[in-house]
Amino acid sequence: MIRQSRVLAGALVLVIPAFAFAKPIAFADGTTAMLEYGAGTMTEAQIFYAPEYNYSVGGGHVEFDSAITSETVRITYARLNYLVERWNMESAQANLYVWGGAGGATGNAFAGTQAVVNAGGQADYETRRVYASLKTDLQRASAFSVRVDTLQLGIAPYEHEYNRIATWFVVQARQYTGGIQHGVESALLLRFFKGGTWIEAGVTNGGKLQAMAMYNF
Amino acid sequence: MKSYKVLLVAMLSLSPVAIRAATIEMHVNGLVCAFCAQGIEKKLRKFPATADVVVSLEQRLVAVALKDGQDIPDAELRKALTNAGYTVATIERNDTPIAAIRSRVGQVKP
């Protein structure tokens, strides 16, 4: 029964539209590098190159440290991101992405290296003042299954211009499955970006640091 | 009298060059995030005909200054903006200096 639920959850991840923050595809012939520190529970680094505007290839490394047990999992993966749909409105943009990949995992709760399947999706809607996003990301192996769902809502105190610094106040809610953490973790974040550089940092409801840096080139 | 006619013909033949479009102004949909719009400059500056590029989120405008006597076909412009992640609504050619456009949108040259 549990296994069936997990399979169903995995299938849903592939089809449910989700909203996200950092886009996995920058632009054609563009590269995105990202580093995130998730309150000591999740630390992730990614790099993706987009040959075309609607897909990117790359990989990442993510480490989960359970807040419930002493279990840790380290996953290195290769991934393909695909832009399913983009809506360019007069003063807004919305995107829907899905991705899939595979890799290997090590951890202190199982022996050796396990094969991992990665799947997820994200979408976003933004204007120059308002931002909403949700992302879901599943890492699944025979010894574990972890899904991370992240919701972000942002508001900008002013409408930034192309060559000037942008400022966003962001509220984040995140939920882990797979015994990584109980309940929903919330965070207040302050985000800045200018040119191709993006930095955000804040604090969770548990008083821990949540931070991310990203670079497009 | 004949020399005046020759001069007139010569001037008329030169006039198309004198009024040739110096700038392309494109209105673009979806242009809301500067971080995501970096690809616009990257793409447009790769054209040999491009002398300069101005992007304004406020006016949803992308302007390309052309090198003397050169142009970029509309299809190439639309493809470049699509590859950057956006949709071109209109394309207009005029002789407005790029400095004037930059001033109009409240930007200074980096």
Give a quick rundown of the structure.
The complex is a heterodimer of chains A (217) and B (110). Chain A has 217 residues and is mainly beta. Helices cover 6% and strands 64% of the residues of chain A.
Structure description:
The complex is a heterodimer of chains A (217) and B (110). Chain A is mainly beta and 217 residues long. Chain A contains 1 helix and 12 strands. A 12-stranded antiparallel barrel of chain A has the order 1-2-3-4-5-6-7-8-9-10-11-12. In chain A, a hairpin with a 6-residue loop joins strand 5 (92-107) and strand 6 (114-126). Chain A is globular and about 50 Å long. With 110 residues, chain B is of the alpha+beta class. Chain B contains 4 helices and 4 strands. Chain B has a 4-stranded antiparallel sheet, sandwiched between helices. The radius of gyration of chain B is 17 Å and the shape is globular. The interface between A and B is medium-sized, with 33 and 30 residues.
The total of beta strands of chain B comes to 4
Helix content of chain B: 25-40%
Strand count, sense and closure of the main sheet of chain A? 12 strands, antiparallel, barrel
- The level of helicity of chain A is under 10%
Q: What is the gyration radius of chain B calculated from CA atoms?
A: 17 Å
The share of residues in extended strands of chain A comes to over 45%
Specify the number of helices of chain B.
4
Structural class label of chain B: alpha+beta
Question: Mind telling me the C-alpha Rg of chain A?
Answer: 17 Å
What is the spatial order of strands in the main beta sheet of chain A? Answer: 1-2-3-4-5-6-7-8-9-10-11-12
Determine the N-to-C terminus distance of chain A.
Answer: 46 Å
Which percent band covers the strand fraction of chain B?
Answer: 25-35%
Distance between the termini of chain B: 53 Å
